[in-house]
Amino acid sequence: MDNGKHGGREPKPASSTRERILLLMKTRGRMSANELAAELNLTEMAIRRHMYELEHAGSVQTVAIRRQVGRPLHKFELTAGADELFPKNYHALALDLLTELDEDPETAGLIDRMFEGRMRKLRDRYLPRMKGLGLKERVEALAAIQNEGGYMAQIEKDGEGRYTLHEYNCPITGVAGKYEQACGCELALFRSLLEVPVERTECLSKGGSRCSYTIDGKENP
Question: Does the record bear 4Fe-4S in its keywords (predicted)?
Answer without folding.
Answer: no
